[in-house]
Amino acid sequence: MSSDISGRKRKGTGGIFSVFREQEAGLRRFLRRISPSSSDIDDITQETILRALQAEREREILQPKAYLYTIARNVVRDSLDKKSRSVIDFIEDFAPETVSSNEPLVEDQVDGRQRMLLFWEAVATLPEQCQQVFVLKKVYGYSHAEISKELGISVSTTEKHVAAGLRRCSEFLDKRSVRFGKESESASLQG
Protein backbone atom coordinates (compact mmCIF):
# COMPACT_ATOMS: atom_id res chain seq x y z
CA MET A 1 0.00 0.00 0.00
CA SER A 2 1.29 3.43 -0.79
CA SER A 3 1.13 6.40 1.50
CA ASP A 4 2.12 10.04 1.30
CA ILE A 5 4.79 11.81 3.35
CA SER A 6 2.43 12.34 6.31
CA GLY A 7 1.74 8.61 6.53
CA ARG A 8 -1.92 8.94 5.53
CA LYS A 9 -3.29 6.41 3.13
CA ARG A 10 -3.88 7.73 -0.35
CA LYS A 11 -7.15 7.44 -2.22
CA GLY A 12 -8.05 3.88 -3.14
CA THR A 13 -5.31 2.12 -1.15
CA GLY A 14 -7.50 0.10 1.24
CA GLY A 15 -6.57 1.99 4.39
CA ILE A 16 -10.18 2.27 5.49
CA PHE A 17 -10.53 -1.51 5.64
CA SER A 18 -7.55 -1.92 7.96
CA VAL A 19 -8.95 0.82 10.20
CA PHE A 20 -12.32 -0.94 10.10
CA ARG A 21 -10.73 -4.22 11.22
CA GLU A 22 -8.99 -2.44 14.11
CA GLN A 23 -12.18 -0.61 15.12
CA GLU A 24 -14.82 -3.28 14.40
CA ALA A 25 -15.41 -4.29 18.04
CA GLY A 26 -15.71 -0.67 19.16
CA LEU A 27 -17.93 0.16 16.20
CA ARG A 28 -20.26 -2.71 17.11
CA ARG A 29 -20.43 -1.49 20.73
CA PHE A 30 -21.28 1.98 19.43
CA LEU A 31 -24.01 0.53 17.20
CA ARG A 32 -25.51 -1.44 20.10
CA ARG A 33 -25.89 1.86 21.95
CA ILE A 34 -27.52 3.81 19.11
CA SER A 35 -29.42 1.17 17.16
CA PRO A 36 -32.92 0.30 18.36
CA SER A 37 -32.49 -3.31 17.29
CA SER A 38 -29.47 -5.45 18.10
CA SER A 39 -30.51 -7.85 15.34
CA ASP A 40 -29.68 -5.15 12.75
CA ILE A 41 -26.08 -4.61 13.89
CA ASP A 42 -24.52 -7.08 11.43
CA ASP A 43 -26.38 -5.49 8.52
CA ILE A 44 -25.51 -1.97 9.67
CA THR A 45 -21.84 -2.93 10.10
CA GLN A 46 -21.75 -4.46 6.63
CA GLU A 47 -23.42 -1.41 5.07
CA THR A 48 -20.97 0.87 6.92
CA ILE A 49 -17.86 -0.80 5.54
CA LEU A 50 -19.40 -1.04 2.07
CA ARG A 51 -20.12 2.71 1.99
CA ALA A 52 -16.67 3.49 3.39
CA LEU A 53 -14.92 1.38 0.76
CA GLN A 54 -16.95 3.02 -2.01
CA ALA A 55 -16.08 6.47 -0.67
CA GLU A 56 -12.40 5.60 -0.40
CA ARG A 57 -12.32 4.75 -4.11
CA GLU A 58 -13.57 8.26 -4.88
CA ARG A 59 -11.59 10.41 -2.45
CA GLU A 60 -8.96 10.47 0.26
CA ILE A 61 -10.31 9.86 3.74
CA LEU A 62 -8.28 11.94 6.17
CA GLN A 63 -9.79 10.64 9.42
CA PRO A 64 -10.90 7.07 8.71
CA LYS A 65 -11.97 6.20 12.27
CA ALA A 66 -14.24 9.25 12.58
CA TYR A 67 -15.48 8.64 9.04
CA LEU A 68 -16.50 5.04 9.89
CA TYR A 69 -18.44 6.16 12.96
CA THR A 70 -20.16 8.91 10.99
CA ILE A 71 -21.20 6.46 8.28
CA ALA A 72 -22.46 4.01 10.93
CA ARG A 73 -24.58 6.74 12.54
CA ASN A 74 -26.00 7.68 9.12
CA VAL A 75 -26.81 4.06 8.29
CA VAL A 76 -28.74 3.78 11.59
CA ARG A 77 -30.62 7.00 10.76
CA ASP A 78 -31.42 5.74 7.26
CA SER A 79 -32.70 2.49 8.74
CA LEU A 80 -34.89 4.36 11.24
CA ASP A 81 -36.20 6.63 8.47
CA LYS A 82 -37.18 3.59 6.38
CA LYS A 83 -38.87 1.95 9.36
CA SER A 84 -40.67 5.19 10.21
CA ARG A 85 -41.92 5.51 6.66
CA SER A 86 -43.15 1.92 6.71
CA VAL A 87 -44.94 2.56 10.02
CA ILE A 88 -46.59 5.66 8.51
CA ASP A 89 -47.56 3.72 5.39
CA PHE A 90 -48.93 0.88 7.49
CA ILE A 91 -50.97 3.25 9.66
CA GLU A 92 -52.36 5.05 6.61
CA ASP A 93 -53.11 1.82 4.74
CA PHE A 94 -55.06 0.31 7.62
CA ALA A 95 -56.74 3.30 9.20
CA PRO A 96 -60.37 2.33 10.02
CA GLU A 97 -61.91 4.93 7.72
CA THR A 98 -59.71 3.74 4.84
CA VAL A 99 -60.59 0.08 5.29
CA SER A 100 -64.32 0.64 5.73
CA SER A 101 -64.67 3.09 2.85
CA ASN A 102 -63.87 2.55 -0.78
CA GLU A 103 -63.05 6.24 -1.22
CA PRO A 104 -60.86 7.62 1.59
CA LEU A 105 -61.00 11.36 2.03
CA VAL A 106 -57.85 13.12 0.86
CA GLU A 107 -58.19 15.58 3.76
CA ASP A 108 -57.99 12.72 6.26
CA GLN A 109 -54.85 11.34 4.64
CA VAL A 110 -53.17 14.75 4.61
CA ASP A 111 -54.22 15.40 8.21
CA GLY A 112 -52.83 12.02 9.31
CA ARG A 113 -49.55 12.67 7.55
CA GLN A 114 -49.28 16.13 9.14
CA ARG A 115 -49.96 14.67 12.58
CA MET A 116 -47.33 11.97 12.05
CA LEU A 117 -44.78 14.57 10.89
CA LEU A 118 -45.56 16.69 13.94
CA PHE A 119 -45.10 13.62 16.15
CA TRP A 120 -41.63 12.98 14.68
CA GLU A 121 -40.80 16.69 15.01
CA ALA A 122 -41.70 16.44 18.70
CA VAL A 123 -39.59 13.31 19.12
CA ALA A 124 -36.63 15.07 17.48
CA THR A 125 -36.65 17.69 20.26
CA LEU A 126 -36.01 15.07 22.96
CA PRO A 127 -32.51 14.52 24.37
CA GLU A 128 -30.72 11.63 22.62
CA GLN A 129 -31.16 8.88 25.22
CA CYS A 130 -34.73 9.95 26.02
CA GLN A 131 -35.46 9.88 22.28
CA GLN A 132 -34.03 6.36 21.90
CA VAL A 133 -36.06 5.05 24.85
CA PHE A 134 -39.25 6.79 23.71
CA VAL A 135 -39.01 5.49 20.13
CA LEU A 136 -38.28 1.94 21.29
CA LYS A 137 -41.32 2.06 23.58
CA LYS A 138 -43.87 3.96 21.50
CA VAL A 139 -42.90 3.05 17.94
CA TYR A 140 -41.39 -0.42 18.26
CA GLY A 141 -43.40 -1.57 21.29
CA TYR A 142 -40.48 -2.69 23.45
CA SER A 143 -41.14 -3.34 27.14
CA HIS A 144 -39.28 -1.33 29.78
CA ALA A 145 -37.16 -4.42 30.54
CA GLU A 146 -36.27 -4.92 26.86
CA ILE A 147 -35.29 -1.27 26.50
CA SER A 148 -33.19 -1.44 29.67
CA LYS A 149 -31.34 -4.48 28.38
CA GLU A 150 -30.92 -3.05 24.87
CA LEU A 151 -29.51 0.31 26.03
CA GLY A 152 -27.75 -0.87 29.19
CA ILE A 153 -29.74 1.37 31.54
CA SER A 154 -31.94 0.62 34.54
CA VAL A 155 -35.67 -0.03 34.28
CA SER A 156 -36.23 3.02 36.49
CA THR A 157 -34.27 5.23 34.08
CA THR A 158 -36.24 3.75 31.19
CA GLU A 159 -39.54 4.58 32.90
CA LYS A 160 -38.38 8.13 33.60
CA HIS A 161 -37.35 8.64 29.96
CA VAL A 162 -40.70 7.32 28.69
CA ALA A 163 -42.59 9.63 31.07
CA ALA A 164 -40.41 12.61 30.15
CA GLY A 165 -40.78 11.84 26.44
CA LEU A 166 -44.57 11.63 26.75
CA ARG A 167 -44.75 14.88 28.69
CA ARG A 168 -42.42 16.82 26.37
CA CYS A 169 -44.00 15.48 23.17
CA SER A 170 -47.49 16.25 24.50
CA GLU A 171 -46.44 19.80 25.35
CA PHE A 172 -44.87 20.22 21.91
CA LEU A 173 -47.97 18.89 20.15
CA ASP A 174 -50.32 20.97 22.30
CA LYS A 175 -48.43 24.13 21.33
CA ARG A 176 -48.48 23.18 17.65
CA SER A 177 -52.18 22.28 17.68
CA VAL A 178 -53.08 25.67 19.10
CA ARG A 179 -51.03 27.42 16.43
CA PHE A 180 -52.49 25.33 13.61
CA GLY A 181 -55.97 25.89 15.01
CA LYS A 182 -55.51 29.66 14.89
CA GLU A 183 -54.14 29.51 11.35
CA SER A 184 -57.10 27.38 10.29
CA GLU A 185 -59.58 29.80 11.88
CA SER A 186 -58.02 32.84 10.23
CA ALA A 187 -57.90 31.05 6.86
CA SER A 188 -61.59 30.16 7.08
CA LEU A 189 -62.49 33.73 8.04
CA GLN A 190 -60.61 35.08 5.02
CA GLY A 191 -61.88 32.43 2.61
Low-confidence stretches: 1-13, 178-191
**Number of helices, counting only DSSP H or I runs of 4 residues or more:** 8
Based on secondary structure, the structural category is mainly alpha
The main pleated sheet reads as:
none
Distance between the termini: 70 Å
Domains, number = 2
Helix proportion range: over 70%
CATH superfamily caption of the largest domain = RNA polymerase sigma factor, region 2, helix turn helix motif
Q: What is the CATH topology assignment of the largest domain?
A: Rna Polymerase Sigma Factor, Chain: A
The helix/strand order is HHHHHHHH
Assign the CATH architecture of the largest domain: Orthogonal Bundle
The beta-strand count equals: 0
Gyration radius from CA atoms, angstroms: 22 Å
Task: Name the CATH class of the largest domain.
Answer: Mainly Alpha
- Give the overall form: globular
Which band does the percent of strand residues land in?
A: under 5%
Question: Can you describe what's shown?
Answer:
One of its GO terms (biological process) is DNA-templated transcription initiation. This is RNA polymerase sigma factor. Residues 118-169 form the RNA polymerase sigma factor 70 region 4 type domain. Residues 26-85 form the RNA polymerase sigma-70 region domain. The protein has helices at residues 15-34, 41-58, 64-93, 96-100, 106-124, 128-138, 144-151, 155-190. With 191 residues, the protein is mainly α. The chain has two domains: 1-94, RNA polymerase sigma factor, region 2, helix turn helix motif (Rna Polymerase Sigma Factor, Chain: A, Orthogonal Bundle); 106-191, Winged helix-like DNA-binding domain superfamily/Winged helix DNA-binding domain (Arc Repressor Mutant, subunit A, Orthogonal Bundle), CATH 1.10.10.10. Helix 2 crosses helix 3 (64-93).
